[in-house]
């Protein structure tokens, strides 16, 4: 137990150094799952060992404590578990058709290894190899469309700099290329990958552009002012997947034999689950994207019934089949 307490104090000192604005007592209590009094004792212990710890008063009038930069740098080490987690994240990004992030994570892994002392790195390598062999990642079935990492990088730079871009975009229906001037706002990633942008002329609000269908990106050299009211996370929550349309009140009923499995799913961040007297499970939320809901629900077969909205019920209910397993 004493070793665990010492480890937590060391981790707290590292986090107090990493947090530019410092940590509040609530931050400490939440991070280490302790009560406020214990959080105060942990803070005091760090301040006794590191008297250079600074006390700050934030804009919210809450006190924060920060360890000056470089104070505990020599105490920071990287374990085989952490390196394996980073390698697994790299593989997951590659499998999710995100080669841009896979490359960045791979570069980060190499930089971390270069910072490790040679003897520590040699001791960690056998454990890292064993952990990676045990960390299996199931390959996603089916084809996937490739994304040009140069397109992603150009768009990412434009998003960070709030620069207008001109893109050449391929329409799926007729394969024709069209030119758009856009204010890029961000990316939505899922089983498909999209750029979220607005037309530079101010028309049509937020629009989605399939990243694999962007043939070219060119900086227009015109800065734009980002809408301070736009929230990408809130925008994403308006839809079940990535297709955006006016939201509907959605109600699904999962049969008793599927209720336990369905209860383990988060279908939408705002969902409400209601257990029924007969063992069934009702799930409610509000979102658009009925077509993507239909694609997903058909995998549940006759284990689910759409109660609302009617448009979704007509897409799904007549075509349900009995499957031997559940998603």
From TrEMBL:
- Please name the PROSITE patterns in this protein's record: WYL
User: Which positions fall inside the WCX domain?
Assistant: 249-316
Lineage top rank: taxon = Bacteria
Q: Tell me where in this chain the WYL domain is found.
A: 151-218
A Pfam family this protein belongs to?
Answer: WCX
* PANTHER family noted in UniProt: PROTEIN PAFC (PTHR34580:SF1), PTHR34580
In Swiss-Prot or TrEMBL terms, this protein is called Predicted transcriptional regulator
Q: Which species expresses this protein natively?
A: uncultured Alphaproteobacteria bacterium
What lineage is this protein's organism placed in? Bacteria, Pseudomonadati, Pseudomonadota, Alphaproteobacteria, environmental samples
């Amino acid at each position: 137990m004493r070793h665990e307490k010492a480890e937590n104090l060391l981790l707290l000192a590292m986090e107090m150094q990493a947090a530019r604005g410092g940590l509040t007592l609530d931050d400490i209590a939440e991070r280490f799952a302790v009560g406020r009094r214990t959080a105060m004792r942990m803070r005091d212990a760090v301040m006794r060992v590191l008297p250079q710890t600074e006390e700050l008063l934030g804009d919210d009038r809450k006190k924060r404590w920060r360890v000056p930069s470089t104070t505990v740098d020599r105490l920071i080490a990287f374990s085989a578990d952490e390196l394996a987690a980073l390698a697994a994240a790299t593989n997951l990004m590659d499998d999710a058709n995100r080669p841009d992030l896979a490359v960045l994570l791979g570069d980060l892994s190499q930089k971390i290894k270069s910072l490790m002392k040679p003897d520590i790195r040699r001791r960690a390598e056998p454990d890292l190899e064993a952990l990676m062999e045990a960390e299996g990642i199931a390959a996603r079935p089916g084809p996937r469309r490739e994304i040009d990492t140069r397109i992603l990088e150009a768009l990412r730079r434009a998003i960070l700099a709030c620069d207008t871009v001109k893109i050449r975009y391929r329409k799926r229906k007729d394969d024709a290329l069209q030119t758009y001037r856009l204010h890029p706002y961000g990316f939505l990633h899922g089983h498909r990958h999209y750029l979220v942008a607005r037309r530079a002329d101010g028309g049509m609000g937020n629009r989605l552009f399939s990243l694999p269908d962007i043939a070219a990106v060119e900086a227009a050299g015109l800065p734009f002012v980002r809408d301070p009211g736009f929230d990408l996370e809130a925008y994403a929550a308006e839809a079940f997947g990535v297709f955006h349309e006016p939201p509907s009140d959605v109600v699904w009923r999962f049969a008793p034999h599927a209720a336990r499995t369905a209860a383990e799913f988060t279908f939408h961040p705002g969902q409400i689950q209601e257990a029924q007297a007969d063992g069934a499970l009702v799930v409610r939320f509000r979102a658009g994207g009925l077509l993507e809901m239909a694609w997903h629900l058909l995998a549940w077969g006759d284990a689910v019934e759409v109660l609302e909205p009617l448009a979704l019920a007509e897409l799904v209910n007549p075509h349900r089949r009995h499957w031997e397993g559940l998603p």
